[in-house]
Design goal:
By secondary structure, this protein is α+β, with helices and mostly antiparallel strands. It has one domain: DD-peptidase/beta-lactamase superfamily (Beta-lactamase, 3-Layer(aba) Sandwich). It is built from ten helices and eleven strands. The chain has a six-stranded mixed sheet, with helices on both faces.
Length: 304
């Protein structure tokens, strides 16, 4: 039993430190990204990992940033840990109460006493980033403390839930709902993809949820629509973030872009943060798929 525990800890350590020792730096891509980031009015962190070749780029990749809605990936992990332990059932029926209301999203617009499956609440958290659904899931997962314990035990040392989590009030004031680094958020997406989060079957279902993204007008808009992706993005006034795993023809790659202290706090498509997410999405697709002739149609922006 002790040997199994040691082996598991070594496996987790090997995953999380994957790169600090064995990954190869892509100097060409790093120069391209540095050029793309030049002039941005705020702080930016980027982490890119080609899962086939092992090459990486890390630009402020270990700096803490606000998660905004990307915190909903760790929340999902904490929730599925409860399901895996038999404390919840994925298909169980929940009853919505007005006391759960946070905003007027889909779940927050339900009538008091309405019935909804837990699986649909999770889907709405990940797909449309419904905030009331997400806070409900956070509570069902045992709260921020339980989710943070899962993160710590799985080797994610910097990613934390702050909101509604005892002892993390100062962090919430500084970072909001949660905090993470571009490297850890990209690694967490990879962790799920590789079947390591909670269990292989839990990881598979979580990854399916992350593959259904309504908010596809940022970095995702720069990837052909017939290419499979998993994604979560987030935005608050001074921060824009996106983590994406792309199943590209010549090999999967994962990346995370995060900003903070943005001077541009607008909510238009032209916001510097949103534009940066699109620029990085384009740059990475063209770098890893140089022979691709695909590009967004000339009129696609009119839909947004």
């Amino acid at each position: 039993m002790r040997l199994l525990a040691v082996s598991l800890l070594f496996s987790i350590y090997s995953f999380v430190t994957n790169g600090q020792s064995s990954q190869k730096r892509d100097a060409v891509l790093e120069r391209k990204l540095q050029t793309a980031l030049k002039g941005f009015r705020g702080d930016v962190g980027v982490y890119v990992h080609n899962l086939k070749t092992g090459v990486t780029v890390a630009i402020k990749a270990d700096t803490l940033f606000p998660t905004a809605s990307t915190i909903k990936i760790p929340i999902q992990c904490g929730l599925f840990d409860k399901i895996h332990k038999g404390e919840l059932t994925y298909g169980q029926t929940l009853i919505y109460k007005d006391s759960l209301h946070y905003d007027d999203g889909i779940v927050g617009s339900l009538k008091d006493g309405a019935k909804i499956p837990l699986s649909e609440v999770v889907m709405l958290m990940e797909t449309v980033s419904d905030n009331t659904a997400s806070l409900w899931c956070q509570a069902l997962a045992g709260g921020g403390t339980a989710i943070n314990t899962w993160l710590e035990s799985n080797g994610f040392r910097k990613t934390r839930v702050n909101s509604r989590t005892p002892g993390r009030e100062a962090d919430r004031t500084r970072y909001g709902w949660g905090q993470t680094t571009p490297r850890e958020m990209a690694d967490l997406m990879t962790y799920i993809r590789q079947g390591r989060a909670v269990s292989p079957d839990a990881s598979e279902e979580m990854y399916r949820n992350l593959g259904r993204q309504y908010w596809d007008n940022d970095g995702l808009s720069q990837v052909p629509p017939d290419v499979k992706t998993a994604c979560k993005n987030g935005a608050v006034n001074q921060s824009r973030s996106e983590v994406v795993l792309v199943h590209a023809p010549h090999g999967d790659y994962v990346y995370c872009v995060m900003t903070k202290n943005q001077q541009d706090e607008s909510w238009e498509r032209t916001n510097e943060g949103f534009a940066l997410l699109r620029n990085v999405g384009t740059l990475l697709w063209q770098h890893f798929e140089p022979k691709s002739t695909w590009k967004p149609s000339a009129g696609y922006e009119k839909w947004w």
